[in-house]
Each structure stands twice: as structure tokens, then as C-alpha cells.
Amino acid sequence: MEGLLDAIGALALVLLIAVGLAAGFLAGKIAGGNMALYLVVGVVAAVATPFILAALGLGILAAGGLLLIAVVAAIGAVVVLALVRMATRRNE
Fold it and tell me: Membrane-spanning residues where (predicted)?
């Protein structure tokens, strides 16, 4: 886990936050509703996904470079945002 933190660095963290903001923004525009919720969930999911995968033992993620980490973060953010959308739509 610490190896992943060293490999990612500050630039990757900024990239993950940007990916999460973009995913949250798109989800907010497409689904409508609470834009702030989608932005926060997008950022949290995009930042957390690479760490969760590293904790599960997928160390190849760090070796794949910044682009692979960004792609995985985007996929993770989209999945979590879809789950949030389903949960919030159910409560309406």
C-alpha cells in the first residue's frame, strides 16, 4: 500500500481528483438533481478505487502508469455514481 502511495505521488492525486470531478459533473448533468453530491461521490470514488484495488493485491496497477490509474479511477467513479443514482432515485 505504501508503495502505491509513493508511486502515485501528488500529480496522480490531482489527476484522480480531476477524473472524479469530471465523472461527478457528467453524472450531475445527465441525471440532474444534487450536483454537489455527485461531485463529492465522484472524487471519493475516483481516489479510493486505485487504493482498494492495491489493497486487494492488484499491484500491477501501479506498474501500469498514470494513464491506467486514471482509467481505473474513472471506471470506479462511474460504477459508484451509478449506484448512488439508483439509491437516490429509489428514495424519490
Answer: 6-28, 35-54, 60-84
Checking 32-35 for CB contacts under 8 A at 24+ apart, the result is: 33/88, 34/88
> Rounded CA gap, 26 and 22, in Å?
6
Please give the helix or strand (H or E) that residue 31 lies within, else none: helix 2-31
pLDDT digits (tens, 9 = 90+) for 12-57: 888 889 999 999 999 889 888 788 999 999 999 998 888 888 788 7
Total domains, the chain: 1
Cell of residue 5, nine digits: 502511495
Q: Distance (Å, rounded) from C-alpha 18 to C-alpha 33?
A: 21
Residue 1: pLDDT above 60? no
pLDDT grade, residue 91 (50/70/90)?
A: low
**Domain that residue 80 falls in:** 2-90
Torsion, Cα 31 45 20 2, to 10 degrees, reads 180
According to DSSP, residue 1 is labeled -
